[in-house]
């Protein structure tokens, strides 16, 4: 059975989600990303969108002034909250990336927003909408930082299909369930030129770091 329910897939995978960071061949890339995230977000008041289990929340909180970590998935959020971050520095909230509402409002305005492995799940037809929503909620000149996967033959799950917008999809099963339900997950792997084309109208000072297994970008919202 093929299921199209990304929220359910990640909820069921929450307990083992961080296993993806244990692959030996990815350690050099991950160390580079961790160092760069801490350098770029040092001293910032950060909104993290799609925090998942809090793996990247830990990296951000190491140098940021404050972090509001948000996710739409309560199962993921529970694992992040269980890591016992200092309450005076890291707070959590359930929030949809396309409907960011905060109650109560943060004590200080955000100076940066971080999207970890979220851009690849946003349809190409909705990416400009997302950037516009972030600009509306956070204001201009906010630092935007994103990290996500590069496609690597033999390592990445193969692409199962491409839709009319150019979005690509993978068919995945839950870890430990080789005969269980298959889930169709949107997972885009943009090139540097695609990222520049998509972000140019809404951002400035765009910089991209392309690694073997991951990419990272930082820019300012216009």
Automatic annotation (TrEMBL):
Check the record and name the InterPro entries matching this protein.
Methyltransf_25 (IPR041698), SAM-dependent_MTases_sf (IPR029063)
Domain Methyltransferase: residue ranges: 46-137
Which GO molecular function, any one, fits this protein according to its record?
A: polyprenyldihydroxybenzoate methyltransferase activity
Give GO terms for biological process: methylation
Q: Which UniProt keywords apply?
A: Methyltransferase, Transferase
Q: Which Gene3D superfamilies match?
A: Vaccinia Virus protein VP39
| Keyword Transferase found | yes
Q: What is this protein called?
A: Methyltransferase domain-containing protein
């Amino acid at each position: 059975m093929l299921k199209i329910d990304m929220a359910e897939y990640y909820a069921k995978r929450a307990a083992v989600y961080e296993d993806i960071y244990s692959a030996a061949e990815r350690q050099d890339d991950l160390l580079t990303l961790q160092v760069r995230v801490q350098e770029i977000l040092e001293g910032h008041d950060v909104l993290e969108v799609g925090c998942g289990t809090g793996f990247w929340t830990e990296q951000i909180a190491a140098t940021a002034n404050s972090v509001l970590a948000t996710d739409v998935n309560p199962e993921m959020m529970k694992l992040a909250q269980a890591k016992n971050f200092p309450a005076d520095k890291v707070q959590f909230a359930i929030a949809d990336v396309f409907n960011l509402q905060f109650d109560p409002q943060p004590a200080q305005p955000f100076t940066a927003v971080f999207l970890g492995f979220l851009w690849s799940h946003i349809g190409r037809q909705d990416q400009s909408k997302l950037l516009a929503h972030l600009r509306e909620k956070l204001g201009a000149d906010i630092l935007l930082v994103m990290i996500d996967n590069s496609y690597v033959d033999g390592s990445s799950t193969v692409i199962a299909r491409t839709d009319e917008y150019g979005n690509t999809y993978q068919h995945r099963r839950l870890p430990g369930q080789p005969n269980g339900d298959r889930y169709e997950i949107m997972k885009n792997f943009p090139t540097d030129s695609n990222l520049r084309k998509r972000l140019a109208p809404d951002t400035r000072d765009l910089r991209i770091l392309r690694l073997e297994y991951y990419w990272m970008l930082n820019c300012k919202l216009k």
